[in-house]
Write a structure and sequence with these properties.
By secondary structure, this protein is α+β, with helices and mostly antiparallel strands. The chain is about 35% helix and about 15% strand. The protein starts with 6 loop residues before the first strand and ends with a helix.
């Protein structure tokens, strides 16, 4: 359903819960887990239907790379961190410290981790692939169980 702001919303079922996806014009702007979906009407926007197809393939272990245009909203710093996240290959993990190093600000570990937490397009911008230097899972805005699931899914399909 199209509204005045040209946003389209789709609720997608996944093995780890419902996902809400938002597209604006010709790009994905948000992808996050959601508990209550009653207030939303799913759009049949072609971009969101393609997203649903690609997510289904991902969860079925048939897709490792997403092809959709992304347009996450955030500060310049956050945008840079999210671009760094996209360089972490499928099935691999990186520590927060290594991510900060790769980003070019090795002393900004905490700021980089905070930007990860504000990532508006989970899974496609793979913040779930970042773990603590000790090897522990660390945090995940969708919940630790979901992060563990995504990491296990990718590990067994490397």
């Amino acid at each position: 359903m199209k509204d005045k702001t040209d946003y389209f919303i789709r609720i997608i079922n996944s093995p780890i819960g419902k996902i809400i996806a938002t597209a604006e014009h010709d790009s994905i702007t948000n992808l996050d887990f959601i508990d209550d979906t009653e207030a939303y009407i799913s759009s049949d926007n072609p971009l969101l239907l393609q997203l649903e197809k690609e997510l289904f393939e991902y969860f079925e272990k048939k897709r490792k790379i997403f092809t959709l245009p992304l347009n996450p909203k955030g500060t310049q710093f956050q945008q840079g961190v999210w671009e760094t996240l996209k360089t972490i290959p499928y099935g691999q993990t990186l520590s927060y410290a290594a991510e900060a190093q790769r980003f070019g600000s090795p002393k900004a570990v905490r700021a980089v981790a905070n930007a990860n937490g504000k990532n508006p397009i989970s899974i496609l911008i793979p913040c779930h692939r970042v773990i603590s230097s000790s090897g522990k899972i660390g945090g995940y805005s969708g919940g630790i169980y979901k992060k563990e699931f995504l990491l296990a899914l990718e590990k067994e399909n490397e």
